[in-house]
Amino acid sequence: MTTPLEPITFGERPLRIEDVLALANRQVPTQLQGDAAYRQRIAKGAQFLDSLLDKEGVIYGVTTGYGDSCVVAVPLEHVEALPRHLYTFHGCGLGKLLDAQATRAVLAARLQSLCHGVSGVRVELLERLQAFLEHDVLPLIPEEGSVGASGDLTPLSYVAATLSGEREVLFRGERRQAADVHRELGWEPLVLRPKEALALMNGTAVMTGLACLAFARANYLLQLATRITALNVVALQGNPEHFDERLFAAKPHPGQMQVAAWLRKDLAIDAPTAPLHRLQDRYSLRCAPHVLGVLADSLNWLRSFIEIELNSANDNPIIDAEEERVLHGGHFYGGHIAFAMDSLKTLVANVADLLDRQLALLVDVRYNHGLPSNLSGAPADRAMINHGFKAVQIGTSAWTAEALKNTMPASVFSRSTECHNQDKVSMGTIAARDAIRVLELTEQVAAATLLAANQGVWLRAQAEDARPLPPALAAMHAELAQDFAPVIEDRALEGELRLCLQRIAAQHWRLHA
């Protein structure tokens, strides 16, 4: 009997990246903090806004137009119509739709921000957002159209519209009209109150949700790339002493030391080793801790940037109901996420480049210390017509080149827009989308290099003087053998590469703690 998972509570409790990942993967239920004091604090913001309207106060986005139109007064008789106009005219997104996992992460990020109680929204809005997550009602959100300030306006307009029963959602695997799904669930679509459409749209939820997913993928990729490197040290009969603990004490970057420690454990470095072909291996083996260590050392500050943004109120204006003040600012600016994602895509692309170089050594008889050309397992009488991993190496080179090309920082391409009101913008959402694409490409490189490394280890095991694999690598090799047979006679490897990518996406292999 399985123990029910503790639900993730949206409210005053901060969320971690792991919480967003669990929500995005539908692994845990959700709930909204329900104590009376918290609900009253949320309600007080909306009540304060209503009192200002009664006094005919001037509030940006409530009694004024939006953006550069903030100088345009909106008469009180039109205030109720303003939220619908905001999400309506922003319904111009293009490009591919966010997938289900990313959409859930976006909903979680937006709900968490509004739960701070300084956005002037009703409790009912928070409840409906939480219900979207709980019932897996997913707005269909186009990826493209945000400059990252004033937040993710256009993509988040699809959240506001679907909460109001407009546009389309994904529900139970089908593309449906939001209004039909509301009826099926017995819900009344929300009529957004003054400030609520702005509160939903004027924030960094899309870039932040994507950043949470990117961080989790990069963290697993770091561990996988370390394991692949260990397999390649065995396949290439490299020198495990390159990862000696005393060596890394002389240059003590913590992440670099951690990667070296993982390699020592994988390689059982204290065990006797085979005779060395080279005193010093080529850099893609010898310097693997130095390459991967930069990513390892960056994860802490990347986490900090992402989680502070995740647990922030990032719309405008901020409503301070306690002090009865409306604070106009720019918390919708996604600069921290933009820099984090621009940095992450460079860190990850370097992992692709490292693994691509290791694969190039594996397939080349000039450098692979006795392995057959292109890692073909064909017998001698058929070797001339078999080409093993030759095309896989070409594909890996292409994926690596594309990953490296996509490292151009998005954040430096700020564009003045919206009548020069949004004259300096973050481009954080583009940076996050770039980071996801670089991760996709690097995972393809990792899949190819993992299968090739496994083939190399298998080929070494065929030798009469073959040594037993260290325990961690033996277990990995045996597990891989269940899905990926040795390549003896040429076969198309696309299906196996795609299966390997599925395993990576599911974080299937237990790697390093």
Tell me what you see in this structure.
The chain has two domains: 8-202, Fumarase/aspartase (N-terminal domain) (Fumarase C, Chain B, domain 1); 211-506, Fumarase C, Chain A, domain 2 (Up-down Bundle). Helices cover 53% and strands 6% of the residues. It has helices at 17-24, 36-54, 76-79, 82-89, 100-114, 123-135, 153-163, 178-185, 196-201, 205-235, 245-249, 254-267, 283-286, 288-310, 335-363, 390-405, 428-461, 471-481, 494-505, and strands spanning 8-10, 30-32, 94-97, 138-139, 142-144, 168-171, 174-177, 318-320, 325-327. Strands 4-6-7 form a three-stranded antiparallel sheet. Strands 1-2 form a two-stranded parallel ribbon. Helix 1 links the parallel strand 1 (8-10) and strand 2. Helix 10 packs parallel to helix 15. The protein starts with 7 loop residues before the first strand and ends in an 8-residue tail after the last helix. It is an enzyme of class 4 (lyase).
